[in-house]
Amino acid sequence: MRVLVTGGAGFIGSHITAALADRGHEPVGFDCREGTDIRGDVRDPAAVAAALAGVEAVCHQAAVVGHGKDFSDAPHYTDTNDRGTAVLLAAMVEAGVKPLVLAGSMIVYGEGRYECAEHGAVRPGPRAESDLAAGRFDPHCPRCGAALRPGVVTEDAQVDPRNVYAVTKLAQEHLSAVWARSAGGRAVSLRYHHVYGPGMPRDTPYAGVASTFCSALERGEPPRVYEDGTQRRDFVHVRDVATANVLALEAAAGGAPPAGELRVYNTSSGEVRTIGEMAAALAAAYGGPEPVVTGEYRLGDVRHITAGSQRLAADLGWRPAVDFASGVAEFAKARLAETPLWTGSA
Questions:
Q1: Distances (CA, A) of 133 to 39, 129, 141, 229, 303
Q2: pLDDT band at 343 (very low <50, low <70, confident <90, very high)
Q3: Model pLDDT, residue 299
Q4: What is the pLDDT of the chain when averaged over all its residues?
Q5: Which segments within 38-139 are labelled E, that is strand?
Q6: Taking a C-beta distance cutoff of 8 angstroms, is the pair 108, 121 a contact?
Q7: Is 185 exposed, middle or buried (0-12, 13-18, 19+ CB in 10 A)?
Q8: Angle at CA 99, nearest 5°, toward 78 and 18?
Q9: Cβ atoms of 160 and 114 closer than 8 Å
Q10: Closest of 58, 49, 63 to residue 20, by C-alpha
């Protein structure tokens, strides 16, 4: 199967390209940077149309990722992520390409699942800056103010995007759903959790936390951990994410999901870890220095977000193969990429 991989020169996109080739497929990388088969901008209709020639399926990874610097980044995020996706989908209609796998994100959920001892499942609103400044990082029950117990998010959870990147990732899913219904396409969104592994970019406002920690270690500095370090996350290895993409592409090309449907899947390791644990594990594998918990915070960050991938396992037979300890040990010794992910893999 000939597969166009947008963002093919990026972190996740390059691993997907390799995984497709290993399975006997013909990946065609499309990216605005060097190191790809076709250079072009996903916002350029002519370039995208040319890249789709002879293609049987699309794996859409091109995006601006991360939190960025501040709200001044919003036009660039929306232009690249949402207009770029719209241009791609319109070109797919013209080319008659039906299967699509999208790089989704768990960030569309906002905060994760919470349980109140008295009121059951509740959805806390955004954390108040006054609470964050006072070191009160955990959200509380919106009905009684009691402490909450964090849990696991399922794909049918209510979405609640809380920063610009999250809004653009949800818009990509909505665009893909409309495309599928109107064009008879078959779309899958893999809602990635915190992806890490070889090839991550160096510390930029658009990089993930694991990259930020490793960048500090390379400079001989301690990783700086925001809040109190007990934020719950799920770190999934990039090779496992690449495998999930290949399985989803093969399923979509084979008719699942049915024409006209978008199906979403959490893509996670299933291992609940904390930000502090990741920093400590990387520092230990790298040989120090030990992390520093700063108490700093960023508005728009969520406190706890973890999810299982049972639906992905049941439908596509996917299981993560890289455990946390071995993945972190490998990543701590890997070379970080030099190119910022302005339009790389999501």
A1: 45, 6, 19, 15, 14
A2: very low
A3: 87
A4: 94
A5: 38-39, 57-60, 62-63, 99-105, 114-116, 120-122
A6: no
A7: buried
A8: 85
A9: no
A10: 58
Classify 123 as helix, strand or coil: coil
d(CA 344, CA 3): 17
pLDDT band for position 345 (cuts 50, 70, 90): very low
Greatest C-alpha distance within the chain:
59
Secondary structure, 3-state, 280-330:
HHHHHHHCCCCCEECCCCCCCCCCCCCECCHHHHHHHCCCCCCCHHHHHHH
Residues 24 and 314: their CA atoms lie apart, in Å, by: 24
Mean pLDDT of 236-260: 97
Residues in the chain: 346
pLDDT per residue as tens digits for the range 131-185: 999 999 999 999 999 999 999 999 999 999 989 999 999 999 999 999 999 999 9
227, HSE (Cβ side, Cα atoms, 13 Å): 22
Q: How far apart are alpha carbons 262 and 88 in whole angstroms?
A: 16
Ordered alpha helix ranges (H), 110-226 = 129-133, 164-183, 209-218
The mean-pLDDT minimum among 44-58, 227-241, 242-256, 326-340 falls in 326-340
